[in-house]
Each structure stands twice: as C-alpha cells, then as structure tokens.
What does this fold into?
Amino acid sequence: MYSDSLRLVIPVTVIDAARAVTRALDPDVGGYESWTPMRQNPDDWQAPPTGYFVQTPCSPEFKQRAMWLLQNPAHLHSAIAADGAQRWPGADMPTLADVQAFCAAAQMEPAQ
Amino acid sequence: MLGITRRAAVLGPTELQRVIQAVRRNGGVLYCPMITAAALYSDSAGLTPITGFGDVVGRAESASGGAAAIQATTARKPTVSAQGFVFDGSNDFLDTGLTTSDEGWLCVGASSTNNSTFFANGAGSIPVRGLWFYRVHATNNVVLVTGNGSAVVTTTVGASMASGVPRVCEAQWSPAAQSVRVDGGAPVVAARSGSMSPPAASLRIGSYIDGATYATAGTMAAAIYCPQIPSDAEQTLLRRWVAAQQGRRL
It folds into this structure.
C-alpha cells in the first residue's frame, strides 16, 4: 500500500543524473521518465523548462530509504551502479560527482 | 482481484455481458477497475496484481479484450479507489497504445474536483492530430477537441457540469461532424472537415497532458473507446452501464 508520497524538485542542470536515479529506484521499467518539466508559463509547453519535478505515491519505507540515500550520495551512487549492472547493462551511468550534484540540488516539497 | 469488490451496481451481470459484447462488436476497449474480469496490476508487465485500494496501477486490462492500458513509470501511475482510477492531475495517465480513427466513439464516467482531461491523443497543447476530451472547471463545460493537422474543432457542452459531480461524457466524431453530450442529454454537434488520423500519439486516459495545464486531479469510474460508432441502442446501454459504475441510474 502507498500511504505516503514524495515530491522532489531539481534544476535543469542535474536532470541526467536525476533520470538515472529514478530509473534505479523505480521498481518498474519507466523510472527514467519520472521527471516532469516545469515552465514559467505552463501553457507554453514548447518553452524550455526551468526545472523538473517528480511526485509519486509511495510507502513510508520507500520514502525513508529515498531520503536517506539523498543524504548519502556515495550509497546512492552504489545503488545506481548495482541496479544498472543488473537491469540496464550498457546504459550510461552517472559518476559519483554527478550524483553528489543531484543530491545537493534536489529539494523535497510537500506533495500537491 | 484481491481487495476490490464490485460496488452494488444498478445494472447486473447480464448487462455487463451485453456491454462487453457491444464493445467487442465495435472493436473497442473497456477499462473499469470495478469489474473483476478487468485485472489490475501495480507493474506494467502484469506480474504483480494489486492488493487493494490505494495501490498504484501500472497495467489495467481491458474487460472486453484488446489493448491493456499501461504506465511503466511509477510516478505517473494512478491509484485505485472505490470510485475508480484516481489521477493526481500532476502527471498520471495510462497509455492504451491505441490510435484513434476518423470514425470513433468514446464514453467516460468521470468525477472530478477540477479540470480533467480523460481521453487524449497527442502530447502537447491543442492536438495537431488527434483529440482531447475534457471538462473545464472554470466554466463547468465539457469540451471535445479534435485536430487534423491544420484545423482544430472544439465542441462544447456548457453550464452543465457542477464541480465534483459524477457525469457520463460521450463523444463521437467523423470526417463530417463531431458531437459531445453529457449524461445522455442532447448532443452538441460541430461540423468538421479533413481527416483526423493518424494522431500524433496513442490514446491516453487520465487527467494530465504533457506540458499543459488543462488538467488537475480527477477520478474515472469507467472508460470505453470504440474505433467505430456504436448504434444508438448500444450507446444507450453503454452510457447506462457506465453511470451504474458511478452508483447512478440513467
């Protein structure tokens, strides 16, 4: 059961690492697509995004694990590498520096 | 389907069989979380059945056969409640993989608290090729929009949709005309020209369109799409059945 929710907001600069993170954490195969673009004028869908967000229902345990990983980039990087080796052989993987930048930039917000 | 029981419907199993036959006759699909025959899974591959209300839905089989509606990204999956699929209006949708044609009919039982788009081809603003079918909270309208690459036709049923009240919205379109109606009321017809197909993207159900803001949270009790237009009698049957899934009698 998904009794909790998680919403993260990131700047455009870390989107590649962010996609790799959600690809690894999503138990399904579409985690890479999790991030939704935000725009100054939301009606202007062709404008370049000003940032991205992800919002998802989740279990409290998943949220707790995600928050812990965000505070521990080295462990998050290891988790991504392990998942990549198992599920995404050949896919581009972020470096530790990329994951550190993502963790530093990601902001948690109340779910909307 | 564990944890999900069909609500006390106005119409019974015999009507359900007639509904499924009518949808099949017209080559269509029927998505309804209250039908035990329509298996729901939390993963897109259909390996993990849902366990109860509140679970996310990654795959919803069509009760009439045909394409399953799928969402492989957990953050974009709706949840399921006693009222139906619950779309968060932020980014949730299910993708049927189907494309619409110039002769088509769709029907949806929707209840929402704000703007809701419940069927859509395309992944942008007003569709270049394809259709939108949505409810505009600000003016309480149901709007059907079709596009054929050069022209967009909008058909509106006005001032009939109080916010949060369940309604059955129906639309049909052809190269000559398109129409939309609410709860079996008088259809509002608009002339259209040209060919709508092929659309830019497959048919989605949900309350969200990529990059646009015409939708927020909403609940869908049942959704039907037929690539050909059912007979008037069949439309009446399908409309009544969808309303029954909302606990209403039409």
In short: Strands of chain A lie at 4-10, 36-38, 51-58, 107-109.
